[in-house]
Amino acid sequence: MAGGTRRAPLIVAAVVGLGLVVGVRLLTGGGGSGTSAGGPPAHPPGQTGCTVVHLTASSEKAALLKQIAQDWNGTEVDGTCAQVEVTSKASGGATDALARGWNEATDGPRPDVWSPAARSWTGLLRQKTTVADKPDLIGPTTPPSIANTPLVIAMPMPMASALGWPNKALGWGDVLRLAQNPKGWASIGQPYGRFTLGKTNPNFSTSGLNATIGTYVAATGTSSDLTLQNLADPKVQQYAEAVEQAVVHYGDTTLTFLSNLQKADDRGAGLAYISAVAVEEKSVWDYNQGNPSGDPATLGKHAKPKIPLVAVYPKEGTLLSDSPYAILQADWVTAPVKKVATSFLDYVRGDKAQQKFAAAAFRGFDDKPVAATSAGNGLDPRQPKVVLNPPSPPVLARVQALWSQQRKGAKVLLVIDTSGSMGDPAGNGDSKIDLAKKAALKALDQFGPKDDVALWSFSTPQNGSLLPYRELVPFTPIAAGKAKLRQQISLLTANGGTALYATARKAFRVMSAGAGTDRINAVVLLTDGKNEYSPDQDVSSLERELSPEDTSRSVRFFPIAYGSDADLTVLTGIAEAARGAAYDASDPASIDKVFTAVLSNF
């Protein structure tokens, strides 16, 4: 790697994260025109009998791969037109789906090619299939990379400068010192309040897992192989747990943090939301272009931030998201499909496609920096100095297990809409409330031993009550309260109207009264409708109340827009005001997956 990079001698294996899957199949109808440099001529658009590859890819590159595929589709391979269809799926979700047996009804198109965010996912899949005595879908060789981007600690420029950036080497140790100091930023004479960290859930996200691995490596004080013996050291565990205590909340993707930061920056509060967030280098570039989603279609449609982010490359070492391209060794991947997949790989690694990756701030598959990785973009082409390989699968599995024990605890209020429309049919003989109850019951198992959970239901006032919300289970540790939560969720019935604003307002006040900095304080609110409660119709005052100037005891809102009649725009506004994220479950059948995504924040 350029800039004096050295690779620490860690064993190559599986790292879990968010990814996309792309597959190849036989399809009628040609794709768009396009040809690889020096390759066969493009097949005329509209030609039938094309060989189609379904490719599942990780979210940070899926939209870009779609563009590249559109340029290439219609190319002839062995005299037959070829087409690649790209879909997006989190790396962790795709790993689990491939390991258990892909279900197109719930998992999307079955991939012929899988490109997760990092090759560690492919190692983890090998481990899962081996343990289950299932065929190896990856094969004996390491899949080739199509692009690279290192994990960094992204910080608003003034905050990073206060720590000595860019002249001083910084890392997880600096994060830990500020996180542990009760004075926070004031301990170094800065007015930024408490030091807060954003980090994705390592069971879902590559950046979250890489950050967790990096923290453990930093805790050992070396850049050598991370071992099970290292992880058993109480001092190493204490170090990692201390870093987790700085987390404001977790997330299923880094976009939650970057979008919230953009909204804060738009309001002139770019230094009030978060001190640092673990993301890929490429995401820093995206944010600084005003395009935190990284979708090429939205580039240039929002102003650049007033306060840009800069990339801190952890001095203790960091890992790469190296985007492997795995042609699956499965019986559904036919010889013609493999030929098309191989041809597309050649195109993706060719100059034309690599220029598109470079324009989006991905480094080359050979690890070389590109023009976008410049100081003007908050990046450093000379970094990272130390690149870590992911640990072996047993060590990786132990890292995830330890994180589940050491992560910051949460205090979560579940609020479920029980208005009459929740009784509407949702398909397969179930009503919307039936599906929501099943998903909520299953979701309870995602809470950890440190979490306290409460349950409310809401509709318009009924049975002589003056209030539209009803406390069904008070806050209680999940282990002690799970049985009661299950019972009360099972008893939910649909009746009445939707008292959305009054319920959200009361939930926020109750949570704020008991919020502390030692917990993630959050409200998860599921609703299938719009506000129908006349005593409280002022959404603007609600949003103002959810955005207090004092953020030291922040309460995050994570609304779920359930069904096609839910007001996603209003729910998004509520989420943004409370520095959370709104989730779209307009298809009631998706509620199980959405609940999983929501609870990954804790």
What does this structure look like?
- This protein is of the alpha/beta class and 602 residues long.
- It has three domains: 6-146 and 322-367, 3-Layer(aba) Sandwich (D-Maltodextrin-Binding Protein, domain 2), CATH 3.40.190; 149-320, 3-Layer(aba) Sandwich (D-Maltodextrin-Binding Protein, domain 2); 409-599, Rossmann fold (3-Layer(aba) Sandwich), CATH 3.40.50.410.
- The chain contains 20 helices and 21 strands.
- The strands form four sheets. Strands 1, 7, 8, 9, 10, 11 and 13 form a seven-stranded mixed β-sheet that branches.
- Helix 18 (539-545) links the parallel strand 19 (520-527) and strand 20.
- Helix 7 packs across helix 14 (393-406).
- It is globular, with a radius of gyration of 24 Å.
- Residues 1-47 have low confidence and may be disordered.
User: What is the overall pLDDT average?
Assistant: 86
Fraction of residues in β-strands = 15-25%
Question: What is the C-level CATH assignment of the largest domain?
Answer: Alpha Beta
Task: Summarize the amount of helix as a percent range.
Answer: 25-40%
So what's the overall shape?
Answer: globular
Structural class: alpha/beta
